[in-house]
């Protein structure tokens, strides 16, 4: 194509407005969709945050009780307390999987607390086990980061969204498993 | 007011300033803030969807779906890129996903079904003709022309979002321009 024609076309394309008003107001339908889809995730989000916070509290309490009261009667009491607390907050990671706002401050704080508990417990494990767990965690985080990058270019992809939630859940599950798996060992001391 | 005038007046809306506070509030669940984002950005998203689909109803559906998807994904928007870039990316993916799901329906539809309804019947000016010509482009060429030639995506961005090679993207743009020149009766020396 010769230059004058190209310039003429480019000028015409540049003259087009980027904005076109829809012929009708689309907001009511959008708002309806958002409110229908929002109610449940919000409730679950707070449940997840509360659940994770509860799990952290349970872990912290169990830890504190075990280490501050090494008497003979302690294990039974501690075990009972731990069971009640963990049963009441059990599905933290599963609930977190449906949580679509990882930047929510409450959620992030609760997750960070769980991570601190995980790190504390991890340090108690033998080096070989610790290495395996850290390797697993690295795999999960790498996958999570890969999916995050993919989501950056395709933010609306439901498949990527599911994978992203899945890796979030996997990471929380790992924390949860380590925290819970180390509890019986401690109650027997 | 005819199509061309309508488009020009819509273009005065200021979308250059990044509404960081609104984005942050909406990401925290503030529906009012999100509505303001919708008011600010929906004309551009709709324009993009309309030119990609060539159909008003499909463009409205895609605009709606894009904003619903954006609301759900806002928690992950890290403000490393511009909000408009991110939102447009969602809109393009929505159009493409819908196109894949409704291939047969789209293929039998009148390709210019969206734009002529807003046309000024008395206007034969180049912009209106150009809009109509764009809707008649083959889909691959039209998508590239709309993204790169009108909405300012880079070839790399358009290629990535369309799932094609960058060279293919450039070739499609060249093809689109040549076809447009033919349709508009411009002399070419290819």
Quick tags:
heterodimer; A: 189 residues; mainly alpha; elongated; B: 190 residues; 68% helix; disordered N terminus
Description of the molecule:
The complex is a heterodimer of chains A (189) and B (190). Helices cover 80% and strands 0% of the residues of chain A. With 189 residues, chain A is mainly α. In chain A, helix 5 crosses helix 7 (158-187) and helix 6 (127-153) packs antiparallel against helix 7. The longest helix of chain A is centred in the first third of the chain and has 42 residues, at 27-68. Chain B has 190 residues and is an all-alpha fold. In chain B, 68% of the residues lie in helices and 0% in strands. In chain B, helix 8 packs across helix 10. The longest helix of chain B is centred in the first third of the chain and has 23 residues, at 31-53. Classes of the chains: A mainly alpha (189), B mainly alpha (190). At the A-B interface, helix 1, helix 2 and helix 6 of A face helix 1, helix 3, helix 4, helix 5 and helix 7 of B.
Topology:
The complex is a heterodimer of chains A (189) and B (190).
Chain A: H1 3-15, H2 27-68, H3 74-89, H4 92-97, H5 105-122, H6 127-153, H7 158-187
Helix pairs in contact in A: 2-3, 2-5, 2-7, 5-7, 6-7
Chain B: H1 3-10, H2 20-27, H3 31-53, H4 56-73, H5 83-101, H6 103-108, H7 126-135, H8 139-150, H9 155-162, H10 166-183
Class by helix and strand content of chain B? mainly alpha
**Can you give the helix content of chain A as a percent range?**
over 70%
Assembly type of the shown chains?
Answer: heterodimer
As residue ranges, the low-confidence spans of chain B are 1-15, 103-126
Strand content of chain B: under 5%
The radius of gyration of chain A is 25 Å
Integer average pLDDT of chain A: 66
Main sheet of chain A? Answer: none
Catalogue the unreliable spans of chain A: 39-101
How many strands appear in the DSSP assignment of chain A? 0
H/E series of chain A, N to C? HHHHHHH
* Residues in helix, % of chain B: 55-70%
CA radius of gyration of chain B: 17 Å
If you average the pLDDT of chain B, what whole number results? Answer: 78
State the separation between the terminal residues of chain A, measured CA to CA. 83 Å
Silhouette of chain B: elongated
Largest interface: A-B, 45 and 71 residues
Instruction: Report the principal-axis shape of chain A.
Output: elongated
The total of beta strands of chain B comes to: 0
């Amino acid at each position: 194509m010769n230059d004058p024609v190209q310039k003429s076309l480019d000028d015409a394309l540049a003259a087009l407005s980027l904005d076109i008003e829809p012929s009708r107001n689309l907001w009511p339908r959008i708002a309806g969709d958002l409110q229908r889809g929002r109610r449940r995730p919000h409730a679950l989000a707070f449940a997840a945050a509360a659940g994770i916070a509860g799990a952290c509290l349970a872990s912290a309490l169990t830890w504190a009780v075990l280490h501050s009261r090494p008497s003979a009667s302690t294990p039974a009491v501690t075990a009972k307390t731990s069971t009640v607390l963990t049963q009441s907050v059990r599905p933290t990671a599963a609930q977190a999987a449906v949580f679509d706002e990882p930047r929510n401050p409450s959620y992030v704080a609760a997750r960070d607390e769980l991570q601190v508990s995980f790190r504390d417990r991890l340090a108690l494990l033998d080096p070989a086990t610790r290495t395996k767990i850290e390797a697993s965690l690295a795999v999960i985080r790498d996958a999570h980061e890969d999916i995050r990058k993919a989501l950056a270019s395709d933010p609306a992809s439901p498949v990527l969204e599911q994978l992203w939630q899945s890796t979030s859940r996997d990471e929380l599950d790992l924390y949860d498993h380590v925290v819970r798996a180390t509890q019986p060992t401690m109650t027997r001391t | 007011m005819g199509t061309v005038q309508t488009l020009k007046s819509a273009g005065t809306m200021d979308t250059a300033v990044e509404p960081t506070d609104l984005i942050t509030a909406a990401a925290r669940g503030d529906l009012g803030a999100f509505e303001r984002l919708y008011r600010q950005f929906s004309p551009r998203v709709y324009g993009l969807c309309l030119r990609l689909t060539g159909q008003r109803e499909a463009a409205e559906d895609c605009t709606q779906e894009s904003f619903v998807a954006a609301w759900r994904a806002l928690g992950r928007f890290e403000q490393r890129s511009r909000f408009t870039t991110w939102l447009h990316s969602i809109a393009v993916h929505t159009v493409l996903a819908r196109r894949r799901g409704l291939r047969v329906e789209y293929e039998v539809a009148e390709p210019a079904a969206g734009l002529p309804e807003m046309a000024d019947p008395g206007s034969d000016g180049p912009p209106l003709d150009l809009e109509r010509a764009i809707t008649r482009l083959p889909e691959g060429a039209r998508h590239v022309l709309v993204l790169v030639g009108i909405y300012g995506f880079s070839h790399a961005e358009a290629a990535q979002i369309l799932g094609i090679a960058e060279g293919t993207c450039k070739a499609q743009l060249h093809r689109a321009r040549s076809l447009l020149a033919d349709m508009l009766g411009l002399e070419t020396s290819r």
